[in-house]
Structures are given as structure tokens and as C-alpha cells.
Design goal:
Number of helices: 5
Structural class: mainly alpha
Order of helices and strands: EEHHHHH
Radius of gyration: 17 Å
Strand content: under 5%
Helix content: over 70%
């Protein structure tokens, strides 16, 4: 597993290569903490702007996660999802989460915005659980270790702000 040091706007590799599944599990851990915070905070929020700001944060971190996951990870597994009858499911779930977060921004009442944001968080948790229980283990059984580490390296190169 690579240990990364973020220094002067760049990621520097400190150890061995990291599998894409390990990278995504680590990202999911951060998301789960964010979701816990949002679920605890939303009932206490007093303004529509506060709810929309939280939704914007989730969207800002979820959108690049979904794109990289789709591009680097789900795409190589699509033939196996076809066999399981799940080919469109993972892309559709990402799109559903993103569209639900957009609905928060369009909400006109505090009550509606809270409800929609919590729906987006619930959908995200369900999706992440499916990936963690089914997709990541499937990838580790099907894809070669080198492929998984190559995908991890691709993730790193796309996440490095110096390369954007």
C-alpha cells in the first residue's frame, strides 16, 4: 500500500503501490464519517442555506469520486456486471445520488431540503455498502493484482492537483 505525503500541492509516494480497491475503501471511510456528521447535523439546521451548503459539499467530493470510480474501476468490471444483470445499476446509482443532491439546491423549503439531503445520504450509504460487500471483493477475485495497483496509480495521477 502506498503512503502518500501531500506537500507543496503534490502527492509524493512514500511506500509500495496501492490497489484501487484499497484507495476506494479509504475514500469510502471518509465519506461514511461525512455522512455521520450530516445525519447528526441536519435536524439541527435552521436555514435553507445551511442545508444547501452541506449538499454542495457532498456533491463537490462525491462527483469526482463517482467519475473516477466509473472510469477506472467499474468499466473494467462491466462484462461481469452484464453476467449478473447489473451493468447499468452502478452508473445509475451514481447518477441518482448526483441528481438528488441537485434537487436539494432547488428545494424551496427547509423541510424539503432536509428530507432530500437525507435521502441522498441514505442512497449513498446503500450504494457504498453494495460496492464494499460485492464490487470490491469481485474486483479482487477477477482482476490481477498488477491491474489493481495500476488502477491505483491512475487514481493517484488523476487526483494529483499538480497534474490538473
Amino acid at each position: 500500500m502506498d503512503l502518500l505525503l501531500h506537500q507543496n500541492g503534490r502527492f509524493r509516494k512514500l511506500a509500495a503501490a496501492m490497489k484501487i480497491t484499497d484507495v476506494l475503501r479509504a475514500e469510502h471511510a471518509v465519506f461514511h464519517n461525512l455522512f455521520d456528521h450530516i445525519e447528526a447535523s441536519v435536524p439541527k439546521l435552521k436555514t435553507l442555506g445551511e442545508v444547501k451548503a452541506l449538499a454542495a459539499v457532498v456533491d463537490k467530493v462525491h462527483a469526482p469520486h463517482s467519475k473516477l470510480e466509473d472510469d477506472l474501476f467499474i468499466e473494467p468490471l462491466e462484462p461481469y456486471f452484464d453476467q449478473m444483470g447489473q451493468r447499468e445499476t452502478f452508473h445509475a446509482e451514481h447518477e441518482h445520488i448526483e441528481s438528488t443532491l441537485i434537487k436539494v439546491q432547488k428545494a424551496r423549503t427547509l423541510k424539503d431540503a432536509k428530507k432530500i439531503l437525507l435521502q441522498a445520504i441514505a442512497a449513498s450509504r446503500k450504494h457504498f455498502d453494495k460496492e464494499e460487500r460485492i464490487v470490491f471483493p469481485l474486483a479482487e477475485r477477477i482482476l490481477k493484482a498488477k491491474t489493481l495497483t495500476d488502477l491505483g496509480a491512475q487514481w493517484l495521477s488523476r487526483r494529483d492537483p499538480a497534474k490538473k
